[in-house]
Amino acid sequence: MKKINVGLIGGGFMGKAHSLAYAAVPMFFWPTEILPVKHSIAEATDALAADAAARFGFEKSTSDWRSIIDDPEIDLVDIATPNNLHAEIAIAALEAGKHVICEKPLARTVEEAAKMYEASRGTNAVHMVAFNYRRTPAVALAKRYIDEGAIGRILNVRATYLQDWSADPNSPLSWRFKKSIAGSGAVGDILTHVLDMARYLAGEITEVSALTANIITERPLQQAGADSLGNSKGDGPKGPVDVEDEVMSLVKFASGAIGSVEATRNAWGRNNFITLEIHGSEGSIVFNYENRDELQVCFKNDGDDRRGFRTVYTGPNHPNGANLWPIPALGVGYGETKIIEAHDLFTAIAGGEPVRPDFGDGYQVALVDHAILESAASGQWVKVPQLNRETGKVE
Ligand code: NAI
Ligand code: SOE
Question: How many Å lie between the centroid of ligand 1 and the Cα of residue 10?
Answer without folding.
Answer: 6
